[in-house]
Design brief:
By secondary structure, the protein is mainly alpha-helical. 73% of the residues lie in helices and 3% in strands. It has one domain (6-260). It has helices spanning 6-29, 40-54, 69-107, 125-140, 143-157, 170-177, 179-207, 213-232, 236-260, and strands at residues 113-116, 121-124. Strands 1-2 form a two-stranded antiparallel ribbon. Strand 1 and strand 2 (121-124) form a beta hairpin.
Length: 261
């Protein structure tokens, strides 16, 4: 007759529940997988599948009762770590969307907004376009697989421990500050081109005061912005790849900072 002790049940539960908490938290907060349009059962099923594949490769868990105060603390830590790592990658997407907002504002399309369920809220149409572009690029370069690989590596960097207190979130805050520099780097070519167009329109207005600058300048600015956006789109690829790599490295630095805190 097969007999199972309470210690064995606790060990099996810990080996599955703690990794599942970190993985589900990352799936819920990471780009693409964290989109509200993706059904919750799909997210849970994906998290359980990844946990079943990853759990045998993880280091040994501490001998802690999962229902004790220490076990619940470790469970809460795993959720916080997964959310922080997913947010670190989501900042990359917000940088691209912010670049689109800057471009749309300079083009005169700041009033053209669409509802985005992932925010939720209204964002400029160019910002949503940039969000779609970076999402497709993320999937094209297997960014979702690299993100999962980074998650598995984080279990080696920060194993389950009741002594680690996740107070190293300053790394995440500092990474969030880089959203402005990255968004400016993405939008700078278009901002420079549109600045030249506006300067040319200003000179034209001085040379021909009778010209209705609003009737001419508004469509001309939109046309020039669209044309420059099409021309510089191929050059976004190296910048987006750099953004993805920086986001993945930040996920690992965040896990290391949480471990050392």
């Amino acid at each position: 007759m097969l007999s199972v002790t309470t210690e064995q049940l606790n060990a099996w539960l810990v080996a599955f529940a703690w990794p599942l908490a970190r993985i589900l938290a990352l799936i819920a907060s990471a780009p693409v997988t964290g989109n509200p349009s993706l059904p919750v059962p799909v997210k849970i099923g994906l998290g359980m599948l990844i946990t079943v594949l990853v759990a045998p490769l993880l280091p040994a868990q501490p001998n802690v009762d999962p229902g004790s105060a220490t076990g619940l603390l470790i469970l809460a830590q795993q959720v916080l770590i997964g959310l922080a790592m997913g947010l670190a990658m989501h900042i990359v997407f917000h940088a691209a969307e912010m670049a689109g907002e800057l471009i749309g504002l300079q083009m005169g399309l700041g009033f053209a907004t669409l509802y985005d369920a992932s925010v939720p809220g209204f964002i400029p149409i160019i910002g949503q376009f940039m969000g779609i572009i970076i999402s497709l690029a993320f999937l094209a370069v297997d960014g979702h697989l690299l993100m999962l690989s980074t998650l598995v590596e984080s279990f080696q960097i920060m194993p389950f421990s009741p002594l680690s207190v996740p107070s190293g979130l300053r790394t995440l805050v500092e990474w969030g500050g880089s959203i402005f520099s990255y968004s400016l780097a993405l939008s700078l070519p278009l901002l420079a081109a549109l600045l030249i167009v506006n300067l040319a329109l200003g000179v034209l207005t001085r040379a021909a005061p009778q010209l209705n600058i609003f009737a001419v300048g508004f469509p001309l600015t939109i046309l020039a912005g669209m044309l420059v956006l099409v021309l510089v789109m191929p050059y976004f690829t190296p910048m987006l790849e750099r953004l993805f790599m920086d986001g993945l490295s930040t996920m690992l630095r965040l896990a290391s900072a949480l471990r050392l805190s």
